[in-house]
């Protein structure tokens, strides 16, 4: 059983997509272990996206992720990390397949609805970062 860190981004929370997204996660046989709605401070977002700090769009990510509340979660299940990445779809919603969360609900590469850890190692780091 793996655990992964998932975050519903401000656009989806604002648009009341939280329930739809949770439904898709649970229908895949994954379990919501922890869940909390909260606002992120700028410093935490900068640490979380540090691997993109030298990109021209880094400021847009920070502005977007602090633009309103997010819903953060720990999700568990068999192959939870890769299963969630498949369920989420490609980073750019224009490339995300229909049937994926981003493919069905997102239109914008920055405001792309959901975050999911990209490896088991990063999942552990991110769960500690956001839930302590
Ligand atoms: P996350 O689950 O959010 O970490 O997305 P990811 O793992 O699919 O992609 P990555 O970690 O490479 O990028 C993190 C976030 O930066 C993405 O989810 C986007 O919101 C944003 N991002 C990535 N590439 C671009 C880009 O080319 N332009 C803009 N504006 N934002 C981008
Ligand atoms: Mg990522």
TrEMBL record:
<feature type="binding site">
    <location>
        <position position="85"/>
    </location>
    <ligand>
        <name>ATP</name>
    </ligand>
</feature>
<dbReference type="InterPro" id="IPR034907">
    <property type="entry name" value="NDK-like_dom"/>
</dbReference>
<dbReference type="GO" id="GO:0005524">
    <property type="term" value="F:ATP binding"/>
</dbReference>
<feature type="binding site">
    <location>
        <position position="112"/>
    </location>
    <ligand>
        <name>ATP</name>
    </ligand>
</feature>
<keyword id="KW-0067">ATP-binding</keyword>
<keyword id="KW-0547">Nucleotide-binding</keyword>
<feature type="domain" description="Nucleoside diphosphate kinase-like">
    <location>
        <begin position="1"/>
        <end position="132"/>
    </location>
</feature>
<dbReference type="InterPro" id="IPR001564">
    <property type="entry name" value="Nucleoside_diP_kinase"/>
</dbReference>
<keyword id="KW-0460">Magnesium</keyword>
<feature type="binding site">
    <location>
        <position position="57"/>
    </location>
    <ligand>
        <name>ATP</name>
    </ligand>
</feature>
<dbReference type="InterPro" id="IPR036850">
    <property type="entry name" value="NDK-like_dom_sf"/>
</dbReference>
<dbReference type="GO" id="GO:0046872">
    <property type="term" value="F:metal ion binding"/>
</dbReference>
<protein>
    <recommendedName>
        <fullName>Nucleoside diphosphate kinase</fullName>
        <ecNumber>2.7.4.6</ecNumber>
    </recommendedName>
</protein>
<dbReference type="GO" id="GO:0006183">
    <property type="term" value="P:GTP biosynthetic process"/>
</dbReference>
<dbReference type="InterPro" id="IPR023005">
    <property type="entry name" value="Nucleoside_diP_kinase_AS"/>
</dbReference>
<feature type="binding site">
    <location>
        <position position="91"/>
    </location>
    <ligand>
        <name>ATP</name>
    </ligand>
</feature>
<keyword id="KW-0546">Nucleotide metabolism</keyword>
<dbReference type="GO" id="GO:0006228">
    <property type="term" value="P:UTP biosynthetic process"/>
</dbReference>
<keyword id="KW-0808">Transferase</keyword>
<dbReference type="Pfam" id="PF00334">
    <property type="entry name" value="NDK"/>
</dbReference>
<feature type="binding site">
    <location>
        <position position="102"/>
    </location>
    <ligand>
        <name>ATP</name>
    </ligand>
</feature>
<keyword id="KW-0479">Metal-binding</keyword>
<dbReference type="GO" id="GO:0006241">
    <property type="term" value="P:CTP biosynthetic process"/>
</dbReference>
<dbReference type="GO" id="GO:0004550">
    <property type="term" value="F:nucleoside diphosphate kinase activity"/>
</dbReference>
<feature type="active site" description="Pros-phosphohistidine intermediate">
    <location>
        <position position="115"/>
    </location>
</feature>
<comment type="similarity">
    <text>Belongs to the NDK family.</text>
</comment>
<keyword id="KW-0418">Kinase</keyword>
<feature type="binding site">
    <location>
        <position position="9"/>
    </location>
    <ligand>
        <name>ATP</name>
    </ligand>
</feature>
